[in-house]
Design a protein that fits this description.
The structure holds 2 protein chains of 2 kinds. Chain A is of the alpha/beta class. Chain A has 5 helices and 5 strands. Chain A has a single domain, classed as Response regulator (Rossmann fold), CATH 3.40.50.2300. A 5-stranded parallel sheet of chain A has the order 2-1-3-4-5, sandwiched between helices. Classes of the chains: A alpha/beta, B alpha+beta.
Chain lengths: ~120, ~170
């Protein structure tokens, strides 16, 4: 399983990456900015992307909307500490294989979001 | 400004809650360690609640706070909040007209330390007395006042007890 994790908070980036490695034996690539996320997205065929929204250069949402426009149907879990009521609709626009989770979230909530996007039609 | 600060504070909180819940899931039967981790989680969730409320108060001060009020049975609300705690409480059959999420946050400030909660009805108002609770910190007092004021109620402190009123349904 190849997973791309993006967050500009280094601790959150490390923690989520380690969870994906240990729980799913995933091969994880990390991105610390929206620009890095954009660069990595075309590297390979990802099985899952987990991305924060607010990051330097480009938001995770901008990158994922570009990915969808380019025809990449990769499942995505979008994390955010923002409380903007419009975010839910913006993530919904990424299709059924996308979920929004609000920070702070628990380990179980992260696993549930991953499970939901992996099993969505 | 406050929205930006709240966002930045939620990130480290996110690491604390995700990390401690991960450890709890892997810990097995280690009662003392479990208790410590659960305490970390409760404190982090409490901090999250304070952040949400501070954001509300900021909205209140700028005249942008929108309450979503409904009729709520106080007995039912306290049952959910107190869960397995043995805090004495009486509710006088009171039904309040208030914003559930915000009043739940207000009561959460007290439930861990209160010895007793007395609720009574009087002239269209429902009075809560939180008896012998731990003194409120400055931020807690500020947000508690803000929530109660937003509902048109009053909050005051006498000794170690907190009194506040909310509109009766």
């Amino acid at each position: 399983m190849r997973v791309l994790v993006a967050d500009d908070d280094p601790e959150m980036l490390e923690l989520v990456s380690n969870i994906m490695r240990r729980k799913f034996h995933a091969e994880v690539t990390r991105a610390a900015t929206g620009h890095e996320l954009l660069e990595h997205i075309a590297d390979t065929e990802w099985d899952l992307i987990i991305t924060d929204i607010s990051m330097p250069w480009m938001t995770g949402l901008q990158v994922m909307h570009s990915a969808r426009t380019a025809g990449l149907p990769v499942p995505v879990v979008v994390m955010t500490a923002l409380r903007n009521p419009e975010l839910a609709g913006q993530v919904e626009a990424l299709g059924s294989r996308a979920r929004l989770i609000f920070k702070p979230f628990t380990y179980k909530e992260l696993l549930a979001a991953v499970d939901a996007v992996e099993h969505a039609a | 400004m406050l929205a930006a600060v709240s966002h930045d504070l939620r990130n480290p909180l996110g690491t604390i809650i995700l990390g401690s819940s991960l450890l709890l899931s892997q810990l097995g039967q280690e009662p003392r360690a479990r208790r410590a981790l659960e305490m970390i989680q409760r404190s982090a969730h409490r901090m999250e609640g304070l952040l949400e409320t501070l954001t509300d108060i900021s909205s209140l001060e700028s005249g942008q706070l929108e309450l979503q009020c409904e009729d709520i049975d106080v007995a039912e609300l306290l049952r959910e909040l107190l869960a397995d705690r043995t805090t004495a409480h009486e509710t006088d059959g009171a039904i309040v007209h208030c914003d559930r999420k915000r009043v739940t946050r207000l009561l959460q400030t007290f439930v861990d330390s209160a010895h007793a909660i007395h609720v009574s009805r009087n002239s269209g108002k429902v009075q809560f007395v939180i008896a012998e609770c731990v003194p409120l910190r400055t931020v807690e007092r500020y947000v508690a006042h803000g929530i109660v004021s937003a509902h048109g109620g009053d909050l005051w402190i006498e000794g170690s007890s907190v009194f506040f009123t909310l509109p009766e349904a």
